[in-house]
Amino acid sequence: xxxxxxxxxxxxxxxxxxxxxxxxxxxxxxxxxxxxxxxxxxxxxxxxxxxxxxxxxxxxxxxxxxxxxxxxxxxxxxxxxxxxxxxxxxxxxxxxxxxxxxxxxxxxxxxxxxxxxxxxxxxxxxxxxxxxxxxxxxxxxxxxxxxxxxxxxxxxxxxxxxxxxxxxxxxxxxxxxxxxxxxxxxxxxxxxxxxxxxxxxxxxxxxxxxxxxxxxxxxxxxxxxxxxxxxxxxxxxxxxxxxxxxxxxxxxxxxxxxxxxxxxxxxxxxxxxxxxxxxxxxxxxxxxxxxxxxxxxxxxxxxxxxxxxxxxxx
Length: 314
Description:
This is t-SNARE coiled-coil homology domain-containing protein. By secondary structure, this protein is mainly α. It has helices spanning about 10-35, 55-85, 90-120, 130-165, 170-175, 200-310.
């Protein structure tokens, strides 16, 4: 018994074959009805999924299956890589090669889907309504988003493996937190709507998420506006305080200048007083000297006067 993985080539080939058979059967049924054949009643409970007849819808379903397959392959590769650590086994390398090959095919199919949408847009007056074309455009955009997401998932794991180090510090941290394993996000789970689902509901969910984000951004913007106003008020207050400080500095400089002037005047006055004191001392000393000289002169004069008087017999 051969076990066929969801991502295996056999599974993909069988899916393509079933799609082709369904397409042929639907076309034959259409020819039968156009030729006058009666449509057999179908029990709604037993009725299976609707058969896709237009090329755009068929390609859309193929892309959906490819995305699911690639996501499953990435999950399997990540699990094996988690078990192997930094050692790349042959199976892991082969899985990586298969993933990249399928992603290249997925990129081409998304390009073909977009080209088909452009073709349908040019023929819109003949076959498709504006709503249908708008729906197709949204599907192309959704496929692009899924493609980008799986590309990021494919690159993310290898970048994580490449950045791992076997240093002693990492080993110590691993030993310290042993048992608390971090589970990587499941590649098969996405926040994006399913490609094969109701695109209107998916877009509605996306619009709701965008609206929630916009509302959050509005709240953040209002908060930032309040903070900015507070910052402006603080800046104005600081500017007023700076002006007050500058005024005080200017008044202090003027007071210092006045004080320096008064000190200079007082010093000059003291110098003059000192000079006057010296003159006064000099005058007093001169007067004392003159008094002494006069006294000595008087004494000498009186002495000689007595001598002269005695000599003359007066």
